[in-house]
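Annotators were shown the component list below and the corresponding predicted structure, then asked to write short factual statements about the assembly.
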Amino acid sequence: MRIFTASLKNELKKIISRKKFLVFLIIEIIICLLSGLVQLVISKASSGMISTSLVFSNMPMTMLAFFVQIYIPLIIFMATCDLFSGEVNDGTIRATFMRPVSRFKQYFSKIFAILILSGAYLLFLFVLTTVMKVITTNSIVNFGQNFLAYSLDLIPLFILILFVAMLNQFTNSPSLAFFICVIIYIALYVIGILVPIMSGLFFTGYLQWHNLFLGILMPFKAIIIKMGILISYGMIFGCIGYYLFERREV
Amino acid sequence: METVLDVKNLSKLYKNGRGVKNISFSIEKGDVVGLLGPNGSGKTTIMKTIMGLCHANEGCVSIFGNDVEIDVEKTLQNVGGLIERPAIYEHLSAFDNLKMMGRFYSNVDEARINHVLDVVRLRQYGKDKAGKFSLGMKQRLGLAMAILSDPGLVILDEPTNGLDIEGTVEIREVISKMAAEKGTSFLIASHLAFEIEKICNKVAVVHEGELLSFESIEDALRLNPSLEDYFLSIVKEKRGSVLI
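Structure shown to annotators:
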């Protein structure tokens, strides 16, 4: 466990020391503020027909839908390409390959570091939107439910990270890996929208995982099936990705 | 004498058919062994396979009695390496690079990192980003990363690459001092015969993926005026036997 923790700390250090992830955090704040501003303008323009408090009371959830499907996946693509194909490309992966740490621990410490990064962005978004909500509505209604929704959405993001990490094992070029990830993600997403019957088969259809548990409850059997699909995807992506990483020669 | 590294019938062939075939040799405690061979002869492939960066097709590598393919954590605990160019995170400082690598060892603390930076004369640049370093400074940092945990075996691929005269002499001194005082074993690859002659006590000649000879520098120089002549005579002998 000591070695895994050391490896995890290293991966987090590598991520934190890259300024772009701080820039993305600033962009996250700007998006939230702009969104709040637009809603305020709409509320004013409608002469109170659309109440400010109503709009802001649902802000944590409306922002979550956008961030969990578009913004955070982009950050995941970038971080994963940096930690996998990026390191192979610039040769820095050898620095850890030559250390007394198994490739299993290296692989999954990278995955968990990216998951922690995604969690940090989600947590920051939750705090920001909740603060905006409290300021405008003077209420913390649904605080627990919203927090649960944010937490649940980390699960499909974990599967997405495993998927992107697996794709990264097929190329040594971070830019090509990023391009492939974006194209495949968009393709799966669009197919899921155009052919709704297919969306249940792709893991990209489960990015708003909280919808299964919050609001209108689905039958227990349906939830179990969907959980099974997601877990299966995770196991397949995790195993293939790790195997290719283990056999990698640098 | 304690055997530090034991390479037995090691073969590693790439898809293009190049690589190394049937390599066997062993290194004992305190040995400084030079892998001498021209560019593309397979020196780096041998080192990469020993360090677990490549997977051998045949044969086995044992370091302090452990196999890198079976238990990488135990095997690499007492090994340091600098292979090809230094693997440095350029957006981090020299100190942070060492600190990150030091996390995997129980014997590396801040004092050890500073000591290693002193050894390679980079202490004053410790807080500077490694990306701004010159080629020679990066090489020194690479060496610092290799000796960070005070390993029993250090594997260095062209360690004086990019270093100036002073830097080259200093690196030689560090190697000789570690071997003499701590009994550290070294495997050093170079295509420069005079460099191996100066640092090593044993030499292994590698040519076109084969190990042509493995003996002490003393024996190699018995019938030859220099290691360069020794190398040429060995290669000539091999080519002659192929022609016949």
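Statements collected:
1. The mean pLDDT of chain B is 92.
2. The two ends of chain B are 40 Å apart (CA to CA).
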